[in-house]
Amino acid sequence: MKNAFYAQSGGVTAVINASACGVIETARKHKDKIGKVYAGRNGIIGALTEDLIDTSKESAKSIAALRHTPAGAFGSCRYKLKGLEENKLQYERLIEVFRAHNIGYFFYNGGGDSADTCLKVSQISEKLGYPIIAVHVPKTVDNDLPITDNCPGFGSVAKYVAVSTREATLDVESMAKTSTKVFVLEVMGRHAGWIAAAGALASSKELELPIIILFPEVAFDQVKFIAKVSVAVKKFGYCTVVVSEGVKGPDGKFLSDQGLRDAFGHAQLGGVAPVIAGMIKNELNLKYHWAVADYMQRSARHIASKTDVAQAYATGKAAVEVALQGRNSVMPAIKRISNKPYKWKIEIAELKQVANKEKFMPRNFITADGFGVTEKCRQYLLPLIQGEDYPPYRNGLPQYVRLKNVAAKKKLGEFKL
Amino acid sequence: MKNAFYAQSGGVTAVINASACGVIETARKHKDKIGKVYAGRNGIIGALTEDLIDTSKESAKSIAALRHTPAGAFGSCRYKLKGLEENKLQYERLIEVFRAHNIGYFFYNGGGDSADTCLKVSQISEKLGYPIIAVHVPKTVDNDLPITDNCPGFGSVAKYVAVSTREATLDVESMAKTSTKVFVLEVMGRHAGWIAAAGALASSKELELPIIILFPEVAFDQVKFIAKVSVAVKKFGYCTVVVSEGVKGPDGKFLSDQGLRDAFGHAQLGGVAPVIAGMIKNELNLKYHWAVADYMQRSARHIASKTDVAQAYATGKAAVEVALQGRNSVMPAIKRISNKPYKWKIEIAELKQVANKEKFMPRNFITADGFGVTEKCRQYLLPLIQGEDYPPYRNGLPQYVRLKNVAAKKKLGEFKL
Fold this sequence. Notes:
By secondary structure, the first copy, chain A, is an alpha/beta fold. Chain A is built from 13 helices and 13 strands. The first copy, chain A, has helices at residues 16-29, 44-48, 60-65, 88-100, 112-128, 154-175, 194-198, 222-236, 272-284, 294-299, 306-324, 351-354, 375-381, and strands at 2-8, 34-40, 52-54, 103-110, 133-138, 182-187, 211-214, 239-244, 288-292, 330-338, 343-350, 393-394, 397-398. In chain A, the strands form four sheets. The first copy, chain A, has a five-stranded mixed beta sheet with strand order 3-2-1-4-5, sandwiched between helices. Chain A has a four-stranded parallel beta sheet with strand order 7-8-6-9, sandwiched between helices. Chain A has a two-stranded antiparallel sheet with strand order 10-11. In chain A, a hairpin with a 2-residue loop joins β12 (393-394) and β13. The longest helix of chain A is centred in the middle third of the chain and has 22 residues, at 154-175. At the A-B interface, α6, α9, β9, α10 and β12 of A face α6, α9, β9, α10 and β12 of B.
């Protein structure tokens, strides 16, 4: 009987631990087929350095609490393994660690880069003749993985952005007569505008709000943008701009890269929100406020989407189930069956189809003027933010679990990263 | 039988509409003593321009929904009436409008400045021989009104900051091995550090997290601050800094005022978060991320404190009840009876004691090093964030009400502001 290895990779989300919960609870249900689940401390680094967390030391209650706990309970990392030929040593080390701990299942929970690593692990295992079943568990707030209809992690950040945009816009509406006319909210999305698009959901037929979206997929045109803001403020008295951190000018440079200097000449890495706000001040002389959601948006488990939590858990669960069926080099993907009512199921995608591909907003999801989302996009997004899944509270605060994270005994010598 | 006038003043909150709900529902229960409740469109400006909203046109259901709707449903404004002698005309106009619409009750929902206006209205009413009962309903996220133990609006922003700080800090903790070591969150508080103090609640005995707080009450000392961050990162591997927008250097200047210039030499009004983050980069060369909560924090009705909602409603209700008892020039204040269990009641404060005074964090609420809160402060803050009071959701989003806001017929000529 083989043990399993699970690791979290890249930027964490409000629901990546729900996937971990799905993996571990499902493995525990198959004690006849899977031994221990080891988790990598700080992601794949834990595998390379043989720093394995023995999850069997955690109570059923603690593992269940992962479902409502944000961020990465075992630690995650930004550490991309190089190509097989460039750094064969690292892959060999992984196999060595797996062999030492009798690990036959590799569950890797991450985005596009991690899918690629997962694929490589299954390839090297074949080459070195040590059998490993490698299954990728999808996770990314960026929603940019191909094949899967959406990515666990995205629904919750989308809900956070839609809710926060609605609330802050009502605030601006209240005060616009004598105070702020334009509110700018910066959200994540270096390459794809999915998160910014969610800001548009703040406005609905029952509660119309003027929301302007700036996507990384649309080259920023200052003249058109300023005109758009001006028209909205004339019509409504105010407006909100939701801007992707990755918006670029016609020169292809990030708009946030404005060469800001402080009084001592030090470069300041600003966000894009103050840049947009500054333009509004300079061109229209309107009072503005700006916010940068940063990590708050991707860790906001308190306002997670119930749909997202369910899908994060389901992909973790399915990963173990397909592994037990002997499927290798695959990823559980979310398949949309219908919009109204929203129905979905898990399908199995080949990792070769997933790795190293980014899914951008399709052009027909963005309005002709480039500043909003189409009805088609709205129908895509709305199911993903459905339902609330509140964590339990104690003493006024969400009761998030911190695991014991007991290290398994090392069996090998040190390895230099 | 007299009508009543109600207006919202200054920055709105997640629960100011709960106070409006308390005022209007209570007035409706006393139809034998109070006629209509008129609301000022955009606050006191609505009174001056005779732009009165007839709240009797709103259904009981809509008024009830105010309890769970953030921001100012009738519009608020930043408009401070000058002294009685400087601008007697404005006060005379108010009385003229009240007389024209048979208004005998003046309910003003705001902070310190508004308490002063409310006091002046009661004084001019006496001088001009037109009887008005003026009652102030406390509201401010800044929590800086005297007499009252705390201010409606504060508990909810405190809960938002505590929850968001906990979530984002868990995010940083997960990734610190290879990524961000220091997360900086900028929160409101130009003069008083109450909101920043709430960030410290993110850490508890069960879930210890390294949180450093920067208060406006403590002159910023860069050397001590950098040392504090360095020690925390050495011990925990990461830390979070919650910084009040109003933090000042030893020279008394706002730290956010760094004379930032873009590539074209335009001044950029940055927040204080990027300034703090830049210091951490320059002095310690640690990877950082920063967020600015701005309007999101004070409009976050989705994570409002149940205690705060109850107190906001109770002060609105009490305002009408004391007015009916003939008490003039007063404010319902919150009196803390006990901490454990938390018990409170409404007492009546004289407006003279409240107007134009700011309540700062007492020195014994701040730790000796100036970077944290004491147990005394924690015991003060914790009761205020107790309980969740979730709004209803429709289609994945909180179902906030937008009122019809029908204008009452004008009876007077125009008035130039």
